[in-house]
Here is the input.
Amino acid sequence: MSRSRERRLLDDCFLTDRDRVRHDDVVAMIRERLTIIAPTETIGLAEAQGRYLATPVTAPRDVPLADNAAVDGYAFAYADYFRRNTLGVRGRVAAGDLGSIELVRGEAARIFTGAVMPLGADTVAMQEDCDVSDDGRTVTVPKGLKPGANRRRAGEDLEAGQPVLEQGDALRPQEIAALASLGVGQLEVYRPLRIALVSTGNELVEPGTANDLVPGQVFDSNRAMLRALTASLPVTVTDLGILTDDSATIEETLREAAASHDLILSTGGASRGEEDHIVEILDRIGKRHLWQIAVKPGRPMTFGQISDDAHDCVFLGLPGNPVAVFVCFLLYVRPVLQRLGGRADETIARYPLPANFEIARKKPGRREFLRGWLGTGEDGRPAVEKFASDGSGLITGLRQATGLIELPEDTERVARGDTVLFIPFSTFGIAQ
Ligand code: AMP
Ligand code: MG
Here is the structure.
């Protein structure tokens, strides 16, 4: 396998945002150039939550299979009831009774929710609204019912032959319920990607291993956060821990991890400072596809691969600041994991809403993602609030936020009341 060094945008000192790759191009590149690398496996429904379907599913039969009652009450033919609303009671059908009874003109059947509609009946009156004679032989049903009231149709949920799920669909509780309703017990999905997480930085200390820090040290918050961010994705995670800013150690660790993982995700050391080794190591042992993005936060994001004859491992190197890590994960890492792991494209929800903040000057040429949440504007309508500071080390801003505010490249200022795009975190699978 070639170890050619594909160097783009190398003279970073002279790069302007206009030379950097734009957000939309990065997203398009992920969509167009990456392919599914995950093999498939067959699993049971109980393990299906969050997995990506590998084989489409078509409904083999109607759901529900037969017309049935939506309430407890009395079933009859609407054409009959139209003429008289006191009917003879004949028969009783409950949920689970097999087959169906047949009514003749002028008759109603006692029926319970989920029971198959008697032949000849098309409408059900709720028992609360019915008067049964003392001897139980006749029932008077209320006037004013519509034809087909309180009856569920066969195939009303899913029709035989209908495509229900496509390859690449993510399985949520709702999809799992649909599969179960079709009688599917085993399904073919993509296998979880094997990913490795690593933090780099001489200053980093593992949380829980020290009671106190000395100035110059910080606890590693990125790995714990990334672990949580990946928890809802179909991946198995190897934690490679914290590495010091030592080129030889980092190289050795990456080389080794690359052989047994589908993707390595690192944080820190992604710029071009003397203490930043990621880019240089990737150029030496792998291939770099992308480095600088015209985005804030998160400009230096390394995207490449480390390959040997047998195996390609994707490498993603994020900057060290926790806010940049969080935002880059949602915008780029998550789609990469989804793409490689077999998921169809996810649509990102963007809501245009008035800003309840001002930005006097924004640098044109780059896209910015700010931490925001929904509040109330001066006119009493929903509006977007922005976290006051844009410091990319402030985890508090991420906590206050319920989403990202997206400012396009050409925006140069935001006035109160201007429309901005709000992307709720829920669109990335992060619950409130
Ligand atoms: P770097 O990208 O290595 O230049 O780091 C940028 C900033 O992020 C520095 O202030 C680092 O101390 C901080 N940082 C890097 N990695 C982590 C981490 N794992 N947890 C918390 N802060 C970090
Ligand atoms: Mg560093």
Observations:
- Residues 1-13 have pLDDT under 50 and may be disordered.
- Residues 322-341 form the longest helix (20 residues).
